[in-house]
Amino acid sequence: MFNRRDFLRGFAGSSAGAFLLGKESAMFAAYPPPQIASPQRGSGGNGKRPEIKVGGKRVKTVDAHCHVRVREAADLLKGTPLEKAAAAEPGGPEVSLLGPNRLAQMDQEGIDVQAVSISPFWYSATDRDLTARFIDFQNRKLAAMCTANPDRFVAFATVALQFPDLAAQQLEEGMKKYGLRGASIGGSVNGEELSNAKYDPFWAKAEELQALVFMHPQADSANITGITKRAQGNGVLANVIGNPLETTFFLTHLIMEGTLDKFPHLKIMAAHGGGYLPSYVDRLDHGCITFPEQCSVKLKKKPSEYMRQIYVDSLVFSPEALRHLVAVCGAGQIGIGTDYPFPWTTTPVDHILQTPGLTNNDKEAILGGNMCKLLNIPA
Q: Kind and range of the H or E element at 52?
């Protein structure tokens, strides 16, 4: 059985031509995948991607946090207030649909399937008809990408949450007409929390369809969370603090404002391990005990208990952080997250395989079992 080093060496030679789409990605050339040998990782043989095994059993791996961008959609926005926002979206050619080296990178990382999403930048649009056409165009492009590569990609629908009733329609159409598997959303809309009752039509439709709703912070999360000034300086603080902080606010409001009681069967997944909330959720339990006069919404259970019905990704960087995430949320609530094409990690599978204390069942669930069930992917 080949280890990871053997596979990558062979892949770079005879197998690479089968997958490379265009020139080598400059982004990933700067961040080559670490050569980590794993006794549970083998070559698929005959130019195939590596097989990931747990306890000798082949498992399918699913990355639920990875980005795409429909560049042609920007043409629909020329001359509109959104033109500048569309042009400012981050990412090079690697983030455009099936960009250069995407399949090759998935193979190197041991990812069988990506559940792709587009980070929303269109919530400020006020023209309902234009927004509807724009969203439909994006969703059709996502569906085409998945149809062309049915064993490698599924997608989350994009929705216009600034029009909650329209977003509900777009979610249903995306799933029933285009075969998309849920929706991707930001953590707030133009300063409004999504726990506001005006967004109930969208949550009701998501619950009805049993759709997985993937929440990812927006590009200007530092501004959205109010930390722009304090996030200046060295260290990319607007991102490393702002992104998980937006996720933390989003989840906390859904819990504390009673949205998860109103829609108890919602399936919500939060990027970046759920932000900061899993690390200090017990303080929520004690807030209303300590200051009961500031808690007007009576919840059906302790705030920390809602973590067991929220899904999160595994992008938490260390074995101890993943172990703690499992302790708080449960292994059945976690899926792989890579944030592709941004090189936060190039060893997402090894991160799970090598975390001490996880059972084989835990590893199977996190690597892909949970997401296969939620996203209707054949195991």
A: strand 51-54
